[in-house]
Amino acid sequence: MHAHAEKLIGTAMRWTFPLYFFGALYVSGPVLGWVLAGMAFVIWRELDLHPLVWVWVGGMLFMELALVIAHIDLELPLASMIKSSVGWAKGWAMLALFVVAGTLLRDPAVLYRGACHIGLVALSLTPVLLVAALLGLPETLFVSPLQVVGGSGPEFFEVRLYEFDPGFGIPRLRYFTPWAPAIGLVANVLLLLALQESNLKWRLAGSLGCVVMILLSLSRLGWLIALVVPASLLFLSNFKRPGIWFAAVPAMLVAGILMPTVLEAGDALFGSLMSARADSTLVRGWLAEIAVQRWQTEAPLWGHGVVETGPHLVQFMPIGSHHTWLGLLFVKGAVGAAALAVPMVLTSLYLLTRATRSESCRTAFGVMLVLSLYTFGENLEILAYLFWPGMLMVGHALSEKGTFYENRD
Description:
It is a single chain. This protein is mainly alpha-helical. It has a domain at about 1-240 and about 380-405. It has helices spanning about 1-15, 15-20, 25-40, 45, 50-75, 80-90, 90-100, 110-135, 180-195, 200-215, 220-235, 240-275, 280-300, 325-355, 360-375, 380-385, 390-400, and strands spanning about 140-145, 160, 165, 170. The strands form 2 sheets. Strands 1-2 form a two-stranded antiparallel ribbon. Strands 3-4 form a two-stranded antiparallel sheet. A hairpin with a 6-residue loop joins β3 (about 165) and β4 (about 170). The N and C termini lie close together (about 10 Å).
């Protein structure tokens, strides 16, 4: 069972770009999640699932409970409840399913090599995509007919070469994601995995590809996370070495001297970025205000049950989009927000306590850190079909000391 699961995972990662060009990526992710989780539950006694795995399962089930109660409370039609439940099965459920599936991994090397493969393909395609933008070729090649299976919009089934950033006026690439900032999230997760690859050539090629994806996403949050998270994991990996502390003393001294200059430059850079994205920043702010106001006054406990389109003021974007917590509060209320917060916090704390001793736990902690930071800039639910390798890594790390490893085939 384990070998079959690892083969399926490796194949799915290697087929990321082909599936995208067929417009099938949005479909393949949820199917993979349910299949792998089903394989894990068949032998769940052998896997000896960590209690935190069950916390993830319970948390995502509470998401569905909040959805159902909100529909009943607000007297929404049964068809809406069914549609929203299907959305849950393709979104929030994926977090728990891939954590469960991660316990099937005997060796996370399949994730590391898969991330490098995606990075290498992205690196190879980047010149082609940039030339397409310079030549003015059509931005969107086609929309896959698989759109009939349903989704949040045609962007999930588009095969798009590039797009122009309205603030900077330069091309930005989305690669295999529905919008450019999303590749910043996915590539940051893949970068953490690629950096653990044992083969130097693969590690360099994969890591470089991930960095290029992050840079060309033109995502401010993506850039920041790419600097902070790997550096934090590097510190944790050397935490017990005396040399790291001796090196830290002069580094902190120099940092103290240069800090005023750095802060001034950072403030100027941040100001220029904010002005370049002024419209985007305003829309995000208005979306946040609408989500909080309507959550507090209309449905504080169980939420509204469905996503609603915002007014013209926010360019008709869904209320709560661009922010995981606000989206949860609006759609699933305080119960839904707690259903995500509890497993994320507990898992992050557990992995952090083991990060200095275990490579798998350190990498998984990095994944949780990336996702935690991105909850303030993206809606995790809608992108779960893309960052699933990170959730597999989390599941593997949680199972590292279970009896699963004492009963290998």
